[in-house]
Amino acid sequence: MNEDGILLCIPHKESLCESCIDIHIAKYESSDHKIVPIKILKEIEENYNLEQQLEKQKIRNILIKMLNEEKIDIKTKAVEVLGILSQRKDKLKKTIDDIFDKKKQEIEQSIQNAINVIDSHLYQIANNSSSFLASINTEEQVSKIVFTDKKVPLSNIELEELIDEELDIGIKFYSEGRPECLYYFQPGTSRVFKIEILTGKQTSYEIDFTCKDHPGICIGPDNTLFYSGGWEDRGTKNCYIFDCCTYDTQEIQPMIKRRFQHSAIYLKPYFYVFGGMKTIKSTMSKNKPKVALDKPTKSAERWNGKNWERLRCKLSENFVKGSICECNNKIYLGGKSFVEVFDPQSSSFTHLDLKWEKKLSCVLVSFNNSVVIFRGKTIGQLDENNIYYKTGSIMETEWCTSSPCLVSGAKIFFLLDMKGCVYSYNYYLRKLEAVCSLKLSFN
């Protein structure tokens, strides 16, 4: 009998021919039977499978459409995850420090055999191993980490330096004088203040020159700060190198132009100064002597260690009381309504059209190979292609600082001139906090 002649009772899944249908029904004592040819049943199954595939494709298309409409920001999600990891890492570091304190108390009699340096697991922590951070939550788990046998350091700084030396993980731990501190040169005095960012402790030192208003200051090589210009009845040319370890100053060759409200930066092997106000002498009339006049300048110059050199290129706009930072071997200059990028290789400026309508002071900081911009109540960022996007909002702030900013871990520290206060901004938690206020002395 061919396939068309074979029948199937669906409820009982038995094949039968037409001649035995009655016998089948009598066997089960029921007439409610769905008996169809097998060929028709196969066609039904094929159609059903096809409908299922179409339904799945339809659902998939709906999901894709929903995802596109939601416009999920992958970068934002990644930052949120990094923030969580950063919190775990900070908490874990405190737990590790507590364990070390307990260990030091337990081994006072045999300090030579003390346990002090964390082994390979700390290497994983330093490299942001998410799986490891997720698995370590308690003090008991941390205490099981393998330690190496060395002397216990006398302070946390020595501990960190020893860890860095042992594991060679590329983390920078600075000793005193290196920029774990912010520095403030008090105008009208011969005094510089050092503010420790972790404790808020402030120490002042006498220096060999009188500080002026609106100088250009930046961090230099080998534990130094570069101090240039400033206003004292008129713009000045004087430049100094301040040693953050010995607190000594060295006067170097003056700048070509008198400048104040300008910006300075070090990008190996040069110190650069950009913009600001320049002071010139002008004759008002034939019967009156020359007087000093101040006006904005778009010019720039650089110090090569021996002489100052004029840069042939100029900024496209006036750059007064602006902010400056280095990122990926280029110099970013932030004015009140613009950002320009200076390329030392080609000695040229590129103007970025960020469509800022309102003029506001800003602070630019290099962080994780990108430029973070603090402006008004908005935190923005320039990516590697110089595309600007908003990353957060904070309280309205007058962003004006003449002191170099400092990046330490996930935090950015700056001293705001208008408030005389040190602030920290946690990049991952999007949180701005006051650290301390300046305790200035006018004796």
From TrEMBL:
InterPro entries in alphabetical order: Kelch-typ_b-propeller
Domain of life: Eukaryota
Entry protein name: Uncharacterized protein
Organism classification: Eukaryota, Sar, Alveolata, Ciliophora, Postciliodesmatophora
